[in-house]
Amino acid sequence: MVEMIDQIHLFRKKEYPNGYVGEKTTPRLQYLGFSYGTLLGTTFMSMFPGRVGRMVLDGVVDADDYATGPGGLQNTAETDEIFDEFWEGCFKAGPDVCPLANSTDFTNAKRAQKDFWSWVENLDTSPRVIQGRVKNSIITGNDVRKTIGLVSYGPKRHFPALARSLHAAMSGDDAGLEELGSGSTYTPTSDDVCRTEAKKLGESSNYTEHSYLEMPSSRTESSHAVSCSDGEDIVDKSVSWWLDYARTQEKTSKVFGRAWALDRLKCSHWPLKPNWRFSGPFTSPEHDGRAMPGVPAAPILFLSSRLDPITPLRAARKMAQQYPGSGVVVQDSIGHTALGSAYSNCTTSLVASYFESGAVTGTEVSCPVDCEIWDRSCQLSRFSDTGEEEGGTEPARLWLSHHPSLLRMPRYRLNQS
């Protein structure tokens, strides 16, 4: 069963049942994919181009980088630049919005960022023990780096809180430091198991006092099962190979590189191999709006934030070049995926138009956002961001709920021959 935890089995389940005997036309996929869902999209397009109707991919994974070689070498290429913009935006917004700008020690963004890195490096050599509200924690510099990387998924939602926590922690407040360590790896104890079981049984005991501390979700474990099966086999690589990999990741991103390398390390002893694995070529034939056999009915529309912490804009541009006729919408936002990081009427209109007509307007189009990160007069409430805690399908579901007309099947000029 575990050997079937991979994208190819998913596609074969979707593709084969559609091939009914006696059908005059081929059913076609109408698809809106986010993050890993973009990899599913490009893979499906490559394997079954004649099954594709419309396809919008947001937060684009570089399929070649993901499926071949060491894996994930390009993901964090923009994370450090996002953190630079956090500091610049904070000081531009001022102390009423961002408390870090109120510190007498921080005369400007560059000075503040320099002091921040000195503080983090001190945590590397001298970790802090925090007596927390629920449990004690050891906070290291890597914990802070990882939290900042995760926060970068949704800056509009999380940057103001990050600024408050950093201001408190760098001023010596343990509560602020505890919040910054929330990205640290959670190791369950026997007490956590008892609390979870007591909650399930509805028992009245001391274990239910903090019953929200449950065992980790299986979502993370299943995610690693999929990624380790999708990529190249990296089992039994040497220590020097992993050190080189970690150094490469840290060179790519000072903020998130270490955490990204550690995430890949979990595949170093993955014992199972998929029955099938697709590693390219990631491309497709030219589209034909008449829905001709064996070719897509429309080109792909790729979306990207201007800066994305794990699926950089360069990946969207690269993949667009590999799929003929594709277009790229670059939204002037920061965060993971365009539709999930900020609201833009421009982007929404282009997506709606594409699903209706299948037409791509130019090879690359830029869209402004309607709500800036530090602007407190507007809120990101139209849909969820795509942070790990909310799940990858949530932005698609919520976004489509606000645009029900996009659920209509497009009008094809079907070829009946």
Automatic annotation (TrEMBL):
<dbReference type="Pfam" id="PF08386">
    <property type="entry name" value="Abhydrolase_4"/>
</dbReference>
<feature type="domain" description="Peptidase S33 tripeptidyl aminopeptidase-like C-terminal">
    <location>
        <begin position="254"/>
        <end position="367"/>
    </location>
</feature>
<keyword id="KW-0378">Hydrolase</keyword>
<dbReference type="GO" id="GO:0016787">
    <property type="term" value="F:hydrolase activity"/>
</dbReference>
<protein>
    <recommendedName>
        <fullName>Peptidase S33 tripeptidyl aminopeptidase-like C-terminal domain-containing protein</fullName>
    </recommendedName>
</protein>
<dbReference type="InterPro" id="IPR051601">
    <property type="entry name" value="Serine_prot/Carboxylest_S33"/>
</dbReference>
<dbReference type="InterPro" id="IPR029058">
    <property type="entry name" value="AB_hydrolase_fold"/>
</dbReference>
<comment type="similarity">
    <text>Belongs to the peptidase S33 family.</text>
</comment>
<dbReference type="InterPro" id="IPR013595">
    <property type="entry name" value="Pept_S33_TAP-like_C"/>
</dbReference>
